[in-house]
């Protein structure tokens, strides 16, 4: 992913007001160059000032598209071992490694309370899982893929584009 400026990130959000976009805290390390842009296909983070708010900025042909998401509250483990799969990168995780993120729709539909959801890696690190730079904490199911890294990245970005398209309506 090409590095983005703070202004480009704030201007990219499609499902919140300009005022809300201005209050979003950028990812930890953004100001001091700590974002690993070369390893990212999209930028995803939790707002340090609002732990139930997560954000995605996805590159596209007309520029980046930013989406504000609501994260679920963290629940205690029930002790059951289940696996879940991220719908973007298709990484298998223990159940706590995937979360349902909900985004208000852009425009009047979102202001009326309409939302869409997507199961994503709870830490929004799909790019790092695809590249093998991060491993799920507990791998219950091991799947071998025959796709190349580039093909897996293309698939993940197509899945993410479909989600952002649903947010845009």
Q: Domain count, please report it.
A: 1
Q: Shape, please?
A: globular
User: What is the distance, rounded to the nearest whole angstrom, between the alpha carbons of the first and last residues?
Assistant: 25 Å
Output the radius of gyration: 16 Å
Reading side by side through the largest sheet, how are the strands ordered? 1-2-3
* Helix content bin: 10-25%
Structural class: alpha+beta
Q: Please mark out the parts with pLDDT under 50 across 5 or more consecutive residues, or reply none.
A: none
Largest sheet: 3 strands, antiparallel
Mean pLDDT: 91
Proportion of residues in extended strands:
15-25%
Topology order in helix (H) and strand (E) letters: HHEEEEEEHEHH
Number of strands: 7
């Amino acid at each position: 992913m090409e590095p983005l400026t703070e202004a480009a990130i704030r201007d990219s959000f499609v499902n919140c007001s300009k005022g809300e976009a201005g209050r979003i805290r950028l990812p930890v390390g953004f100001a001091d160059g700590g974002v690993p842009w070369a390893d990212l296909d999209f930028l995803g983070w939790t707002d340090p000032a609002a732990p139930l708010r997560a954000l995605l900025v996805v590159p596209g042909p007309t520029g980046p598209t930013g989406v504000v998401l609501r994260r679920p509250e963290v629940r205690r483990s029930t002790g059951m071992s289940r696996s879940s799969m991220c719908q973007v990168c298709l990484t298998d995780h223990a159940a706590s490694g995937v979360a349902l993120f909900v985004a208000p729709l852009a425009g009047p539909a979102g202001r009326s309370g309409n939302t869409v959801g997507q199961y994503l890696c709870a830490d929004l690190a799909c790019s790092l899982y695809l590249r093998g730079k991060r491993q799920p904490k507990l791998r219950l199911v091991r799947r071998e893929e025959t796709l190349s890294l580039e093909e897996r990245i293309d698939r993940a970005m197509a899945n993410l584009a479909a989600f952002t398209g649903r947010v845009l309506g």
